[in-house]
Amino acid sequence: MAGSSCALQSLRILVFCALAAAATTIAPRAMSPCAYSMSRTILAVTGLDPYFITCAGDASLSDDGADDASKKAGSGGPIVTDLRWCGKPDPLKHPAPPFQCCQPMTTSEPVNFTFPDPAEPLRTRRPAHEAGSEHMAKYRRAVALMKALPRSDPRSFYQQANVHCAYCSGAYRQAGHPELPLQIHFTWLFFPFHRAYLYFFERIAAKLLGDPGFALPFWSWDVPEGMRIPDEFADPASPLYNARRNPRHLPPKVNDLEFLDAESNYTDEQQIQRNLWVMHKQMITNARLPSLFLGQPYHAGDSAMPGAGTVELCPHNTMHLWAGDISNPNVEDMGVYYSAGRDPIFYPHHANIDRLWDAWRHIMRTTNGNQTKVDFTDPDWLDSSLLFYDEDARLVRVAVRDMLDVGKLRYTYDGVGLPWLNARPPTSPGVNSKRNHLKSVAFPVSLDVAVTVEVTRPQPPRSRQEEVLVVEGIEANNADYVKFDVYVNAMEYHKVRPGGRELAGTFVTLKQPGGERDTMKTSMRVALSELLEDLGAGRDNNIAVTLVPVRGKVRIGGLRIEYVAE
Ligand code: C2O
């Protein structure tokens, strides 16, 4: 077996070399076998995994954007995607096949994104729980039509699901850096990537339906009426059904926005209240700066997963775990990146995430004035670019700067309010009593048991800046999903009421490909200004931070407080 597949591989490489040599002499544009259009053709013909054979570090291997990126390797520049830098995903135990997810190769160059015609009808995305049966029937039909397309069609449901795997499981490498997996999660690309992904998914659906105004429904798990799986997804006869979901979470079970693996025993009413507190913390308290909400900078040459924004950790990750089937090895489908897009509920889930991005920009502007920065201005963010196939199966290069304004993309959200806007969580009296008996902690520390650390607050700067607790050097085991909680001024954290104010932040990962012994290295941030005000600790010189492991192996490199302006 091994011998014959090896022989096949050698044959393919031979074919590749022959074609590459021919290409170099024949085609005027192809100065080397790495030149853009030529190697695409060859790759499309041979089916080889591009990054094993392309010319790593060769600056000629890219179109303009990628060119730039490889020149500036390690010293910044935007992240640029290139189809030829997609190969096998990183290894993962027991994936549900097929575990192979590059976007289809094409012989034509990607076209640059252009905005839709402003005369196009505005698509109104509505909440699934009240979108009405006609609207939901359209989504059902769209998914059925996508599932009926041949697997080779980039618009098929199969290929659409694979897009998520390609960008999130180590299949794509950074152009020019075969050693660096391109991972859009836990970075400032999280929101723009998913916006673009849904934008094209929606337009493909509209085209197949012959309904130019078609809009995705969204799963509004943050508002009480939407806090359960919408009924249409639970009908085994529907194309929206997926058997790989947690059987305990079928409707009318209320979703738990802090779910990891254990069922809570709250009443529906308590669960709903707690969910609203979680939303307030993640959308308001902890999200006062673009980087806190959107995620940490990720430049060309950087290693993956510098740090997620608030909403990505929770409720985004937690709702992936809540929806997936916990009895599957990697919580497939929804609970792990490579397979999440296979569940038709993924798209309404992410429409809600996208709606929260839009809501956050609006909240920031209305509470802090129109001058408030809601986007990064770093050109490396604005110029980072990703590839998608559009409704006509053309490959399109989308830059983050194209994805900032939903109005320009001709869609909007309607139908639900923001009931968590003022749901400021309550404090718990008498949870901070043991403050004088702190042992000192030597970092890095393995978080096997809860640790409490006294962290000194630096002198505040003269200008108003956000005070941020940074949990740095987090090393979380890839092979499991990992959770720890961060409490502030709550030595007796187990007495904090569920969802209470002292629970300042929650860190959650899904399983990552990369092999048993691998760890993901990342960081986490918790905003302190509103929190310390609520805890009556605004004038203290230090705070007690308690890190509480909930699941999985994790090491913490250190804790510090910094003032951040953006
Ligand atoms: Cu890209 Cu919800 O994960």
From TrEMBL:
<dbReference type="Pfam" id="PF12142">
    <property type="entry name" value="PPO1_DWL"/>
</dbReference>
<keyword id="KW-0186">Copper</keyword>
<dbReference type="InterPro" id="IPR008922">
    <property type="entry name" value="Di-copper_centre_dom_sf"/>
</dbReference>
<feature type="cross-link" description="2'-(S-cysteinyl)-histidine (Cys-His)">
    <location>
        <begin position="168"/>
        <end position="185"/>
    </location>
</feature>
<dbReference type="InterPro" id="IPR022740">
    <property type="entry name" value="Polyphenol_oxidase_C"/>
</dbReference>
<feature type="binding site">
    <location>
        <position position="316"/>
    </location>
    <ligand>
        <name>Cu cation B</name>
    </ligand>
</feature>
<keyword id="KW-0560">Oxidoreductase</keyword>
<feature type="signal peptide">
    <location>
        <begin position="1"/>
        <end position="22"/>
    </location>
</feature>
<feature type="binding site">
    <location>
        <position position="185"/>
    </location>
    <ligand>
        <name>Cu cation A</name>
    </ligand>
</feature>
<dbReference type="InterPro" id="IPR016213">
    <property type="entry name" value="Polyphenol_oxidase"/>
</dbReference>
<feature type="domain" description="Tyrosinase copper-binding">
    <location>
        <begin position="185"/>
        <end position="202"/>
    </location>
</feature>
<dbReference type="Pfam" id="PF00264">
    <property type="entry name" value="Tyrosinase"/>
</dbReference>
<dbReference type="GO" id="GO:0046872">
    <property type="term" value="F:metal ion binding"/>
</dbReference>
<dbReference type="GO" id="GO:0004097">
    <property type="term" value="F:catechol oxidase activity"/>
</dbReference>
<keyword id="KW-0479">Metal-binding</keyword>
<feature type="disulfide bond">
    <location>
        <begin position="101"/>
        <end position="165"/>
    </location>
</feature>
<keyword id="KW-0732">Signal</keyword>
<feature type="disulfide bond">
    <location>
        <begin position="86"/>
        <end position="102"/>
    </location>
</feature>
<feature type="domain" description="Tyrosinase copper-binding">
    <location>
        <begin position="343"/>
        <end position="354"/>
    </location>
</feature>
<dbReference type="InterPro" id="IPR050316">
    <property type="entry name" value="Tyrosinase/Hemocyanin"/>
</dbReference>
<dbReference type="InterPro" id="IPR022739">
    <property type="entry name" value="Polyphenol_oxidase_cen"/>
</dbReference>
<feature type="binding site">
    <location>
        <position position="320"/>
    </location>
    <ligand>
        <name>Cu cation B</name>
    </ligand>
</feature>
<keyword id="KW-1015">Disulfide bond</keyword>
<comment type="similarity">
    <text>Belongs to the tyrosinase family.</text>
</comment>
<dbReference type="InterPro" id="IPR002227">
    <property type="entry name" value="Tyrosinase_Cu-bd"/>
</dbReference>
<dbReference type="GO" id="GO:0046148">
    <property type="term" value="P:pigment biosynthetic process"/>
</dbReference>
<dbReference type="Pfam" id="PF12143">
    <property type="entry name" value="PPO1_KFDV"/>
</dbReference>
<keyword id="KW-0883">Thioether bond</keyword>
<feature type="binding site">
    <location>
        <position position="194"/>
    </location>
    <ligand>
        <name>Cu cation A</name>
    </ligand>
</feature>
<feature type="binding site">
    <location>
        <position position="350"/>
    </location>
    <ligand>
        <name>Cu cation B</name>
    </ligand>
</feature>
<protein>
    <recommendedName>
        <fullName>Tyrosinase copper-binding domain-containing protein</fullName>
    </recommendedName>
</protein>
<feature type="binding site">
    <location>
        <position position="164"/>
    </location>
    <ligand>
        <name>Cu cation A</name>
    </ligand>
</feature>
